[in-house]
Amino acid sequence: MAKPKFVPIPPQPLDRFRSLLGDEYEQIEAVAAWAREAFVGRAIWHISSTARGGGVAELLRTMLPYVRDAGVDTRWVVLRESPEFFCLTKRIHNRLHGAAGDGGPLGEDERRLYESTLAASGREVGRLCQPGDLIYLHDPQTAGLVPLAKEAGLKVVWRCHVGVDRPNDLVRGTWDFLRPYVEQADAYVFSRRQYFWDGLDASKAWYMPPVIDPFSPKNQELGPATVQAILKGIGLTHDGLHGAPVFVRSDGTPGRVERPIGLLQDEPLPDDARMVAQVSRWDRLKDPLGVLEMLDRHLPGADTHLVLAGPDAGGVADDPEGREVFAEVAEAWRGMVPQHRRRAHLLTLPMYDLEENAAMVNALQRRADVVLQKSLAEGFGLTVAEAMWKRRPLVASRVGGIQDQVLDGETGVLVTDPLDLARFGAAIEGILADPARARRMGEAGKRRVTERFLTVYRLREYVALVSSLLGIVQPAEAR
Ligand code: UDP
User: Fold this and answer.
1) Any residues with CB less than 8 A from the CB of 357 and at least 6 apart, and which?
2) What residue ranges of the chain have pLDDT lower than 50?
3) CB of 381 closer than 6 A to ligand 1?
4) Is pTM beyond 0.85 here?
5) Is there a contact between 298 and 421 (Cβ–Cβ < 8 Å)?
6) CA distance linking residue 394 with residue 405, whole number of Å
7) What's the pLDDT score for residue 240?
8) Ligand 1 center to residue 391 CA distance, Å?
């Protein structure tokens, strides 16, 4: 095991939200001011298994800078474990979504590997913490640290970002594997009520949907000329307006999109093409093969193009399957008939500079006429909120947290059976054929995200959770 790695959290000014929230912001500021005093001298340690790629890293990266700005001593540490451990935890992740993953076992040998790995990391983490600190663990990769943190006398939250609508035997078996650790936490946080596990104590459960940062390089406003310049810069398009491929970094300094990306395409996306985009890790639960097949069989329009974008293979430390899944998708792409393949573009986006990567995603989402999220299961699906924030109409599977975000017929179209390729095709065609409806959906999506899914909304619950665990009574005016 390598030593856990600190992820820097430069603060971001909370008062940016004043312009978006109006009067409601005053209350949030009061909560922040109270927390600054109430938590003084205590650190809150977030522990996850990757600092880049995927929703958990995205959430921590966008949420914690505001908590630090509020004056709370928040830190983020990433475990660096062996490939065997991450193979096992990916199996656990897949099973928690009801999928067999690599089909491997989850028995006593796996428990030994899981516990011995985390015992070593737990010792390292233990050396960092002081009495009175709080540990905030994320996802199954870290659940085994709960008992170790409890033994050290610390308060522990376990945050589960994974969940499934209808648990099958694989899901329940995996709960059984993890429950001995998880049940010892002082609180557990789920993204949705439906994700609560059998056998846990309901009085310790909190529910918090994930949120996005509207000001980050991923979501900040980019004008059409900038979007075009970024897409031209990465090689997706060839023509462009005369803009520069620039964005504003989180520290306020200028950024420029300039790194080459991995691109599989026969020819660039034409300027007047109608673009359907799915941005996701290369994960079978996002069904990238199904997306390609849908283009092949159910999206006949000669000017309808599909962009499938994800992180550079190998760019996500705790996702060992990414490389393999991308290879499958690339092979399927090569096997498509040429007149359909020319309408499919596969992009792997470099992860060295996460803000540059985020600006690429931002430009792709903004250029898309329809954003697709054809997941087979989805804990929440941050990509959905990101696209809605950008006024994009969604076509998405009616699974998991996507259902909390997309209002069917209002902000997009939900497809009940995620394997029904014909329905996905028809939903996309329907939106593309009616630009006025697409615009209405985009506006409604933006309103919905503005009202519910912005980082600032989680801050109050976060403070409430931490103070309740630390036994500090919150006065009514700071709630
Ligand atoms: N993402 C990214 N770069 C990529 C691909 C994905 O930054 O090349 C981001 C995406 O924008 C979103 C997150 O990764 O913020 C994925 O989160 P989501 O909840 O959609 O899915 P998860 O990966 O957690 O299953």
Assistant:
1) 311, 349, 350, 351
2) none
3) yes
4) yes
5) yes
6) 10
7) 67
8) 18
